[in-house]
C-alpha cells in the first residue's frame, strides 16, 4: 500500500492546496484554525473557501471542530499531502511505493526519484502518545511549550536530514540525504537487511569493528547517534554496515551526549556478545571513543 496522500494529491486543485496551507499556518497559533482566518490567509472568497473545505474534509485530510467557533486542523494525511506536493514539484519524488517498515514513529516507504531510481521516503508520525513517545517528545522540543505532533514530526525530519547531510559529506556509511519537506525525508535506498534479522555472519568481529568505526567517525565530526542498536544498523551483502535512523542525534556538547554514547556502545556490544559470543570491554571502547569526541 502506498500512502493515502500520494493518491489524493492528484485529485487536488491549487485552491485545495491553498486552503491546506492556510490551515497549516493557522495551526502555529491555534489548535483548530478559525474559518475566518482560513478565508483570509487563502485569499479565496468565503463561499469558495467553504466549498474547498468540504471537499478536503470529505477526502479526510482535515478535522473540523464546531464549538465556540468553526475551525479546522490538518491530520497526517493533510500534512503528507503538503510535503509530497513540494517534493514532487521539486522532482525529487515521482511516486511513492509500498510500505517496507511501519514503526511507532515513522512509516518507511519505497519510492521512485526522477529517472526511476529507487529511494526511501520516511514519513515521521510523532505524537501518538506512548511512554517512549512522551520521553522522545520532551527530548526533541526541550522546554518549548508548543508540542504539537506537526511540529515534532517536522523537527524529527529536519534533525534526521541534517545529520545525514553532515555524516554523508564526511564519508560515513549512512543513507544519502536527497530531500526533505515537513515530516518527510527522502534518502538513498540501502540494499541490505537490518542487522537484527541476520542470523549468520561470516566474520562477526569485522562487522562489529565496522560499526564501532562508523561511530568513531560520527563522534569525530561531533555527532552522537543516541538510539544505536541492531535495529538501526543495515548490513549489505558485502558485509558493510550502514547506520540509519538519526532523528534523535545529539551534538557531542549536549549534556546527555556521554550517557547516550555509553548506551549506544552497550547496546551494540551486548548484541554481539549475546548473538556471536564476541566479548568486548565497554569501558575501554567508551574511553577510546571519548578521546575522538570533537569539542
Ligand atoms: N535508507 C534505507 N534503505 C533501506 N531500508 C531502510 C532505510 N531506512 C529505513 N529502512 C528500513 O526501515 C526500517 C525502519 O527504519 P528507521 O529505523 O529509520 O525507522 P524508525 O524510526 O526506527 O521506526 P520506529 O518508529 O520503529 O523507531 C529499517 O529497519 C529498515 O528495514
Ligand atoms: Mg529505527
What is the gist of this entry?
The protein has 295 residues and is of the alpha+beta class. It contains ten helices and 13 strands. The structure holds adenosine-5'-triphosphate and magnesium ion.
Word description of this protein:
This protein folds into three domains: 4-77, Winged helix-like DNA-binding domain superfamily/Winged helix DNA-binding domain (Arc Repressor Mutant, subunit A), CATH 1.10.10.10; 91-188, Phosphorylase Kinase, domain 1, CATH 3.30.200; 193-292, Orthogonal Bundle (Transferase(Phosphotransferase), domain 1), CATH 1.10.510.10. It is α+β, with helices and mostly antiparallel strands and 295 residues long. The longest helix has 21 residues, at 149-169. The chain has helices at residues 4-9, 14-26, 35-42, 46-58, 76-89, 131-141, 149-169, 204-220, 257-276, 282-292, and strands at residues 33-34, 62-66, 70-74, 95-102, 106-113, 117-124, 177-181, 184-188, 193-194, 223-224, 233-235, 241-243, 250-251. A five-stranded antiparallel β-sheet has the order 4-5-6-8-7, sandwiched between helices. It contains ten helices and 13 strands.
Helix and strand sequence: HHEHHEEHEEEHHEEEHEEEEHH
For the largest beta-sheet, the strand count, sense and barrel status come to: 5 strands, antiparallel
Our Rg estimate from Cα atoms comes to 21 Å
Q: Kindly state the percentage of residues in helix.
A: 40-55%
* Strand neighbour order, sheet with most strands: 4-5-6-8-7
Ligands present = adenosine-5'-triphosphate, magnesium ion
What portion of residues belong to β-strands? 15-25%
Mean pLDDT: 92
Q: What is the number of strand segments? A: 13
CATH uppermost class of the largest domain: Mainly Alpha
Q: Which fold does the CATH topology of the largest domain refer to?
A: Transferase(Phosphotransferase), domain 1
Quaternary organisation of the protein chains: single chain
Shape: elongated
**Name of the CATH superfamily of the largest domain:** Transferase(Phosphotransferase) domain 1
CATH architecture of the largest domain: Orthogonal Bundle
Distance between the first and last residues' Cα: 45 Å
User: Which stretches are poorly predicted, pLDDT < 50 over at least 5 residues?
Assistant: 129-147
What's the structural domain tally? 3
Amino acid at each position: 500500500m502506498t500512502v493515502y496522500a500520494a493518491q489524493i494529491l492528484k485529485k487536488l486543485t491549487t485552491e485545495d492546496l491553498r486552503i491546506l496551507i492556510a490551515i497549516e499556518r493557522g495551526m502555529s497559533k491555534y489548535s483548530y484554525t478559525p474559518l475566518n482566518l482560513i478565508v483570509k490567509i487563502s485569499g479565496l472568497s468565503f463561499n469558495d473557501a467553504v466549498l474547498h473545505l468540504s471537499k478536503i474534509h470529505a477526502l479526510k485530510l482535515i478535522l473540523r471542530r464546531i464549538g465556540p467557533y468553526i475551525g479546522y486542523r490538518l491530520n497526517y494525511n493533510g500534512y503528507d499531502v503538503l510535503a509530497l506536493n513540494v517534493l514532487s514539484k521539486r522532482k525529487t519524488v515521482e511516486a511513492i511505493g509500498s510500505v517496507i517498515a511501519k514503526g511507532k514513529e515513522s512509516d518507511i516507504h519505497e519510492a521512485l526519484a526522477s529517472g526511476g531510481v529507487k529511494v526511501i521516503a520516511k514519513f515521521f508520525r510523532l505524537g501518538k502518545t506512548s511512554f517512549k513517545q512522551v520521553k522522545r517528545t520532551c527530548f526533541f522540543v526541550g522546554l518549548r511549550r508548543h508540542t504539537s505532533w506537526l511540529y515534532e514530526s517536522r523537527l524529527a525530519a529536519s534533525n534526521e536530514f541534517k545529520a545525514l547531510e553532515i555524516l554523508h559529506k564526511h564519508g560515513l556509511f549512512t543513507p544519502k540525504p536527497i530531500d526533505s519537506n515537513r515530516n518527510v525525508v527522502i534518502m538513498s535506498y540501502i540494499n541490505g537487511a537490518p542487522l537484527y534479522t541476520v542470523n549468520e555472519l561470516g566474520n562477526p568481529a569485522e562487522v562489529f569493528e565496522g560499526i564501532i568505526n562508523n561511530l568513531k567517525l560520527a563522534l569525530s565530526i561531533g555527532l552522537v547517534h543516541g538510539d544505536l542498536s541492531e535495529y538501526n544498523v543495515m548490513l549489505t551483502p558485502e558485509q558493510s554496515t550502514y547506520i540509519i535512523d538519526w532523528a534523535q542525534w545529539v551534538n557531542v556538547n549536549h549534556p546527555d551526549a556521554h550517557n547516550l554514547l555509553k548506551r549506544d556502545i552497550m547496546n551494540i556490544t551486548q548484541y554481539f556478545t549475546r548473538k556471536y559470543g564476541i566479548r568486548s570491554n565497554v569501558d575501554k571502547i567508551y574511553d577510546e571513543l571519548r578521546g575522538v569526541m570533537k569539542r
